[in-house]
Design goal:
The complex is a heterodimer of chains A (about 170) and B (about 110).
Chain A lengths: L2 H19 L3 H21 L3 H25 L8 H12 L1 H15 L18 H8 L1 H29 L1
Helix pairs in contact in A: 1-2, 2-3
Chain B lengths: L5 H24 L3 H26 L2 H33 L13
Helix pairs in contact in B: 1-2, 2-3
The chains are: A mainly alpha (about 170), B mainly alpha (about 110).
Chain lengths: ~170, ~110
């Protein structure tokens, strides 16, 4: 077992936990970007550099920017509301680290009965672009449709915000 | 267990299970809609890692990367549409807490 793998997995889990437990939403978004950056490192470790670049540029760059824009359009908590909300969050989230530690103990002592096949044989198509363009055109069509749908949603959002400001 | 990739699968698989747990817990427990969306993003990170890990141990990296890229695009579209919906809810109710949204309750 490689020590780097253990460090990367620990960083991923700690970062994800801090992301969901932190008090301020902006800090949570920054934690999400850090989680994406760690996932990118894991992807490079697992020989998936192209997916890693997508993860880094989109999930650690674009998504936090959209989240921060959305949070900026909402109302900031008043100072007198903050302690009550923090207490409520603490009450809801304190079992999470305990459950994670329990899960680590259980899964390391009694691993899941999952086996891997001995050999899969050579990969039929090893070139990513050939596979994406020739063998999976439906994926590409779905991606284009999803991106257009997302762009349409953003246009509608900006349009409504502009009307309210007028 | 004879597969030489078993140690890598075991350690990163543990990471997948724990990250899935964190995401599920956040989505189930929180009342803040944006925080629930952040929990959904964490869940998606775990699924992306699972796809890449399965491709690595099976020796199908091209297919795994294709699926991971598709998942990232789906993630962005879902996130953008959800954020626009939440902002619409905020403009109507003045809150992004799920407990304040009762209009669709049957």
């Amino acid at each position: 077992m490689n020590a780097l793998d253990v460090v990367l997995v620990a960083a991923l889990v700690v970062s994800a936990t801090m992301t969901v437990m932190t008090a301020r939403l902006l800090r949570a978004v920054i934690g999400l970007a850090i989680t994406s950056a760690i996932l990118t490192m894991i992807m490079f470790r697992l020989a998936a550099p192209i997916a890693g670049v997508f993860e880094l540029s989109v999930c650690a760059g674009l998504i936090p920017a959209i989240f921060i824009s959305a949070i900026g359009l909402t109302r900031r908590l008043a100072a007198e509301e903050l302690p009550a909300r923090q207490q409520e969050r603490l009450r809801r989230f304190w079992p999470l680290p305990v459950l994670l530690v329990l899960a680590i103990i259980v899964l390391t002592q009694w691993p899941l009965p999952i086996g891997l096949p001995d050999s899969q044989g050579p990969e039929p198509v090893t070139d990513l672009s050939t596979l994406l363009w020739n063998a999976r055109p439906a994926d590409l069509l779905a991606q284009v449709a999803l991106l257009l749908g997302g762009a349409f949603a953003v246009v509608m959002l900006v349009k409504n915000v502009g009307r309210e400001h007028e | 267990m004879n597969n030489p990739n078993w140690p890598i699968f075991a350690i990163f698989g543990l990471g997948v299970v724990l990250t899935l747990g964190v995401g599920f817990y956040c989505v189930m427990v929180t009342r803040n809609l944006i925080r629930a969306l952040i929990g959904l993003e964490v869940l998606t990170k775990a699924v992306t890692l699972l796809l890449v890990l399965c491709g690595y141990v099976a020796g199908r990296m091209a297919l795994a990367q294709t699926l991971a890229i598709t998942l990232i695009v789906v993630e962005v579209a879902v996130m953008v549409v959800a954020v626009s919906l939440f902002l619409g809810i905020f403009r109507r109710t003045g809150s992004i807490r799920s407990t304040d949204i009762q209009n669709l309750k049957g």
